[in-house]
Amino acid sequence: MAGKALYLGPRLKKLRRDLGLTQAIMATDLDISPSYIALMERNQRPVTAEMLLKLATTYRIDVGELADEDADETAKRLQGVLKDPIFADIAIEPLDIEDIATSYPGMAEALLRLHTAFGEEQLALAERQEGSAGATNESSDAPSRTDPVGEARAFLAARRNCFPELDDTAAQAARALDSYEAMRDHLAQQHGLELRLTDDGLLRGALRWHDYHRRRVYIAERLDHTARRFQAALQIAILEQEAPITELVADSRLASDDGKRLVRRALQSYWAAALLMPYRVFKRAAEDLRYDVEALGSRFTVSFEQVAHRLTTLQRPGDEGVPFFFLRVDRAGNVSKRLDGAGFPFARHGGGCPLWNVHRVFDRPAEVDAQLIELPDGERYVSIARMVRGGGGSFGASSVNRAVAITCSANHLGKLVYSDALHDAEPTPIGVACRMCHRPHCVARSAPPMGREIVPSRFRESGVPFDFSVD
């Protein structure tokens, strides 16, 4: 009885090339015509069970080697991409997606790259439109200035800050590099580098220094254990992940060298975090602990900020976690890091709302604050914030206090440990930015909303900074 026919063209071609064979030689080995080999490789003829058996016995391979381990991953990525509203009117069956990923992996990868480029262009367009709204009267023919920070943020946002290829290599390495001591030994054995702790007298304020000539890597002893582990992991990323990171940067649409450098640093840090918190292990723990940021930090021996950052990356197609937006801000409202895996409409230009808990946690150091917030359009979000300290570690060492917040849609509230405190809470009304918020009775307002006329206050004092018409 004839077996089920399979179309394995790209994989058959890869096998032949890996063996260093021409189509004619493979045809002779299998006792078929070269044209039939060509047809199978173009998916115009199936690879039958009989042919699979002949391939296995002739070349002494496991039939499983012909299975494309990346096909399932590609299919999941395609399914995620095809959820984009731009494809809403196209009916594509799941089986068709699997067939494309299996039989036409090149076309699948091309579609994925095009969609990524499309996302980058959309973000760049939004940046230009928002920038032009608040631009000063400059000459129209003045040369445009590339914003490397904006470039880097757009690169990460277009990919939802998720890089499965880096997650995979980090998870594999994590099996052996599960402690600071293991990473120290790895650097010595694989790279001939001695990992040492040292004081600021040698480092001159740096956190880590690779002394190339003495074959040493110095880490500041003033760092706590979680920061030391991260710096060791980051050094391994720099030494061992050059090729995949370079490929990701090369495939990007980054225009400036500074943008490329920032993205490279972000991807190195991504891999280091993935080494300390392997994707599937970390996601399972996050679900078990109901996304308790402090509890996750204790389990993986990492900081609050490292956990919050890692939670934004759990968007692997087919294995997604709760999508979070990440923000780090100082007391003056300056944003030093922003990562969006949740579509949170935080203004790219202008400050955040002072009613948001990311600004009030400075008054309660080391306490986690959970808040239910509501934007003017009625959308509700959960915000988890805490103050974190950067720098310090010794007397006189400069330090800075920042607030870190992660937010997600209130639709996910039931999955979070914070739901116990927020279940019956009234949402705090906040605005993305005062100029874009049309709530009339906000005492925290710093500017009137666009398009509203300030009303005279000769006979009535409203008690709000700007009294404007609501009609």
Task: Give a quick set of tags describing it.
three-stranded mixed beta sheet; globular; transcription; 434 Repressor (Amino-terminal Domain); DNA-binding; 471 residues; TransReg_Diox_bact_type; Lambda_DNA-bd_dom_sf; 9 strands; DUF2083 domain-containing protein
Computed Rg? 27 Å
Determine the strand fraction and express it as a percent band.
Answer: 5-15%
Proportion of residues in helical segments: 40-55%
Q: Can you tell me the CATH architecture of the domain at 9-67? A: Orthogonal Bundle
User: How many extended strands?
Assistant: 9
CATH fold title of the domain at 9-67: 434 Repressor (Amino-terminal Domain)
Topology as H/E string? HHHHHHHHHHEHEEHHHHHHEEHEEEHE
Distance N to C terminus? 79 Å
- Mean pLDDT equals 83
Q: What's the CATH class label of the domain at 9-67?
A: Mainly Alpha
Given helix and strand content, the structural type is alpha+beta
Gross morphology? globular
Unreliable stretches, pLDDT < 50, 5 or more residues?
Answer: 133-145
What does this entry look like structurally?
With 471 residues, the chain is α+β, with helices and mostly antiparallel strands. The chain has a domain at 9-67: 434 Repressor (Amino-terminal Domain) (Orthogonal Bundle), CATH 1.10.260.40. Helices cover 43% and strands 12% of the residues. The chain has helices at 9-18, 23-30, 34-41, 49-59, 71-81, 94-103, 105-133, 148-158, 164-174, 180-191, 200-203, 225-240, 242-250, 257-276, 279-288, 293-300, 304-311, 357-360, 419-422; strands at 194-198, 208-211, 216-220, 325-330, 335-340, 369-374, 380-391, 399-409, 428-429. The strands form 2 sheets. Strands 5-4-8-7-6-9 form a 6-stranded mixed sheet. A 3-stranded mixed sheet has the order 1-3-2. A hairpin with a 4-residue loop joins strand 2 and strand 3. Helix 10 packs parallel to helix 12 (225-240). The longest helix has 29 residues, at 105-133. The radius of gyration is 27 Å and the shape is globular. The relative contact order is 0.07. Mean pLDDT is 83; it is low at 133-145. Pfam families: HTH_3 (PF01381), Peptidase_M78 (PF06114), ScfRs (PF09856). This is DUF2083 domain-containing protein. Residues 12-66 form the HTH cro/C1-type domain. InterPro entries: Cro/C1-type_HTH (IPR001387), HTH_RamB (IPR026281), IrrE_HExxH (IPR010359), Lambda_DNA-bd_dom_sf (IPR010982), ScfR_C (IPR018653), TransReg_Diox_bact_type (IPR050807). Residues 134-143 have a biased composition (Polar residues).
